[in-house]
């Protein structure tokens, strides 16, 4: 039941309001002085305080100060006489939630109370949600058992405390956005927004408006002013995913944000100051894009203040059993599973082109298809259920039924391209062959 404390020196008003509120299901205590009201407030918990501004012993403003000093969650609504609105506004500046002027009707009072109760509930839910996010993305909850991942996490923890721009590199599915969220929610900006922008997912003609906003009439359909992602992220963090796909003209605008801390809305030449931390990520080789003239060199160095490279899952296979356990808990909804040893063996031998995201999908599928509590090979996708793989001393996996040499070569080239993030020069280095030989073999084998 909602508890209301009514503090007013008007005896008749207290009786009437108390009766009306109790009739509507509220539990009401009344106090005829500021001192009595503070005494009641100190001995019980209230959801709403209705507080008269002018009282003979202790003023409503002073009672308000005492209530707010106790960091109470109660919504405080000031009651003021007509013509004394200035005092109510001053009370709101000091921490009151709202005010109502005498004379007022029963429905008006109930409306003001309900409005402020809803707002308080939203505030509390928001605080709870933020605390859960901070807990969820705590670095201690993130899986990092391999030496490479431990190094990445240690550096991320250090950079989180600063405002430095961060560039996160790694293949698709390695967890770049997860790391960006962890950096934000472990930073001094955690109470402010984290805005995520996936650059390739927004149509090119809308991307500038989405990022920087627009003014009314800037283009067909711009019927009113609109804030962009950078303004919405003001005071917080913006995560620019797949930054390597950003249009060249927008690269120049992003550079200005990083250099000057200013944006311009589409259709407007007036600069707007923003305080935003930028975290960018890509699975592309930005240095190669720079050589091709597709990515600005000055922007690259502005973004690359601190660079974090997340290793692919095939380079941290020791984490696979821990990740499997994590995803079983996530999708199992309280069910306890036993995983057959051959399942873990097959998962650890697989090269995971889709990285952690692919592993998550495989485990979710296994949970759905497993009737009992034991996950066997039959719950895995077809490519895992085929003939067992045999490992050679050189680390190449060949099925028992054999494999064509061209197919082995195709797999080796694809692994090298994945490992290099699509950089053919680096892939050729991994395979220890000249670049032109790699291009020739790719063409012959039909590899895009």
Structure write-up:
- The chain is an alpha/beta fold.
- It has four domains: 3-132, Rossmann fold; 143-311, Rossmann fold (3-Layer(aba) Sandwich), CATH 3.40.50.300; 314-386, Helicase, Ruva Protein, domain 3, CATH 1.10.8.60; 391-448, Homeodomain-like (Arc Repressor Mutant, subunit A, Orthogonal Bundle), CATH 1.10.10.60.
- 47% of the residues lie in helices and 15% in strands.
- The chain contains 19 helices and 16 strands.
- It has helices at 11-23, 34-43, 60-69, 85-93, 106-136, 147-160, 176-185, 204-212, 229-232, 248-260, 286-291, 297-303, 320-332, 341-349, 355-369, 382-385, 405-419, 424-431, 435-445; strands at 3-7, 27-31, 48-52, 75-81, 98-102, 166-169, 194-198, 237-241, 262-263, 272-273, 277-282, 306-309, 338-339, 374-375, 389-391, 397-399.
- The strands form five sheets. A five-stranded parallel sheet has the order 2-1-3-4-5, sandwiched between helices. It has a five-stranded parallel sheet with strand order 7-8-11-6-12.
- Helix 3 links the parallel strand 3 (48-52) and strand 4 (75-81).
- The radius of gyration is 31 Å and the shape is elongated.
- Mean pLDDT is 87; it is low at 387-394.
